[in-house]
Amino acid sequence: MTSTPDKEVPGGSPPGTFPRVRATRPAPALVSPGPEEDRFPMVLPRRGNRASRASAPETRPVPESEPESEPGSAPGACPGPPPAHASASGSTGPPTGTSLLLGAARHSAGRTSAVFLCSAASAAASLAAPALLGRTLDLLLGRDDSAGFWLTVCAVVITAEVLLDAVVAWLSGTVAARSTAWLRVRGLRAVLDARPEDGARFSPGDLTTRLSANATEAGNAPVTVAVLAASLLAPAGALVALFLIDVWTAVAFLVGLPLLVLVLRAFTRDSSESVARYQRVQSDLAARLLEALGGARTIAAAGAEGRERARILAPLAELSAQGRRMWLVHGRAVARGGVLMPLLTTAVLAVGGLRVAAGRISVGELLAVSRYAALAAGVGAVAGLLGTLVRSRSAARRTAGPAALPALAYGTGSLPPDGPGTLELRGVTVVREGRALLSDVELRIPGGASAAVVGRSGAGKSMLAAVAGRLTDPDEGEVLLDGVRLETVAPGPLRREVGYAFERPVLFGDTIAEALADGPGRIPESVVRSAARAASADAFVRLLPKGYATPPGRAPLSGGELQRLGLARAFARAGRLLILDDATSSLDTVTERQVERALARQVRPGTRLVVAHRLSSAARADLVIWLENGRVRAVGPHTELWRDPEYRGIFTTPGPAADGGQAEGAARAEGRVREEREGGPRDRDRGRGRGRGRAPASAAGPRPDPASAPVSGAAGHPAPATDRTEP
């Protein structure tokens, strides 16, 4: 028989009471027979209402910058309509590579303009120098007295050109650095503002490459465009000067110009594809290396060093091939330009020599023609700048991937002051990758109660914890805390009142003290140390070489110690709702008891939602939420749920057991927990010396705790694996 919660739970149970477990009809299957497209007809847009549950599922659009899945990123995106982005160009929609480059250029618009103006001034100086040198040469040959003045002018112009080039080099480095920083901050902010599950579509190695190497290449784009635009001024001006000196010299240069255009066009087309592939394989290589570093112990224990080395280095062959192709394309363009440009210059000089012989131009003008021909031939040097621009555009498209993640939008409201922490889930449905992780969940947890979420692996426990604290939004339904919908609350008040502790906490900060105090606002060090004592972490932290001043990366921490520090961080900022997502799985039974006792007595009172795998955790909770295949199978006290053999099966392995004995053991466990938490008769009797004939602890030894001991099975034998952790 399947048990489901009473449908009157959200509004029918008075505060401080829990719905009774009652048997009803079996819960309907999540997937109904029929065509694939009809299997999940109950998906709604975010913040939808019950009246629109028949709406078709909405899928998150793939950004223009990410046309297809790439190695190192998880395929597919999480469904749900994303909020509108404000792109760098001012339009709405997810940012693309082009909009990011425009935004980076706008971020350093002043310095980028200075780069262009200085480059243009340098080009003007380079254009003036040949004419000045030619005139000075003619004056020197004619022994004119004004030749000295023009010689000084030539020196000033050449010096100005050199100084302007130096200023351009300095400004270029500054602009590239500022643009790179802007792109990295933009991408990192988008990752941190997105739902954690959306950010997880990029592997750590892929994300690191996109926000480091790719952002660096993309950051060169603004200054490259400015320098490229200015570099075209000198060849264009030189060509005009050739027309002014002698039209036939300009015609001789224009004859070969179409060939140069074809070379540059082929270079741009071929290098774009090879650069994109090279960057993609480079990211895949980084992702594999980072995975291996994270699993170094597993690799060493399995003796798989050779196989893992081969797996990591497998993309090297393609990386080498794409690198060779990229530089081959570049080399061809440079070689063809290197041959074509000298030929054009030689042709111009030959025509100029003939015009001098014919008396059409002077020797000084021939010198100017030679210099202008060299400047006009400089158009072939734009191949290098075009190559940089191609790499920057390709890198910008990859950097736009993280920047296009939809942000988790917040409201501007607040929670009621001094609220008890009543948590309600109304018709919550969550669909990911076409699969319903939660389906029509109806819950009401009274303020101040502790609720354990149990179920087999894949039942949706962690997703329920994520939705309850708004790490993600449901596709349908709503979540309320003290009567306020979570999506309407501003981020500051929400994160101050809703705390989390996870199975694998990550510590941020230069010291352990900073890591434990991490969060909105500042908290006193005394609060941090008190929270560490409550989490049974103070003792081993003080034994570290620098105590609380020890950098987290240099502290030799076990898995249990790391979890205790994660709990301490959550305790230090405990609000009206505290969610523990398998946060005690690495603790031994004694430490777990100490932490639970401190949580009940030393941490700010509030509602507790605990993802539990151990029988003892479920027995100590006021309320147990039993999930099965994303649905709420039953809600009620542990002692009542224990009567259901399928519920007992969550904590036990198949084997002979007496149901009555197990239920009696569970009842004893819960009674002991209640008395210990509330200071019941046992504690009072022990304090007054009325032990009812019980031997003192020193004589009889410590009494085992039924909540942490195995429940007795048939014939007094222990039931197998009654207090286990899911694999």
Automatic annotation (TrEMBL):
Which residue ranges does the record assign to the ABC transmembrane type-1 domain?
Answer: 114-391
This protein's name: ABC transporter ATP-binding protein
Keywords (A to Z) from UniProt: ATP-binding, Membrane, Nucleotide-binding, Transmembrane, Transmembrane helix
Give all residue intervals belonging to the ABC transporter domain. Answer: 423-654
Chain segments annotated as transmembrane:
114-137, 149-171, 223-245, 251-268, 333-352, 372-390
Known InterPro entries for this protein? AAA+_ATPase, ABC1_TM_dom, ABC1_TM_sf, ABC_transporter-like_ATP-bd, ABC_transporter-like_CS, P-loop_NTPase, Type_1_exporter
Entry's Pfam families?
ABC_membrane (PF00664), ABC_tran (PF00005)
**Region Disordered: which residues?**
1-101, 646-727
Which stretches are tagged as biased composition: Basic and acidic residues?
667-688
The way it spans or sits in the membrane comes to: Multi-pass membrane protein
Q: Which domain of life is it from?
A: Bacteria
Per UniProt, subcellular location reads as:
Cell membrane
Comp. bias intervals (Low complexity): 85-95, 654-666, 694-710
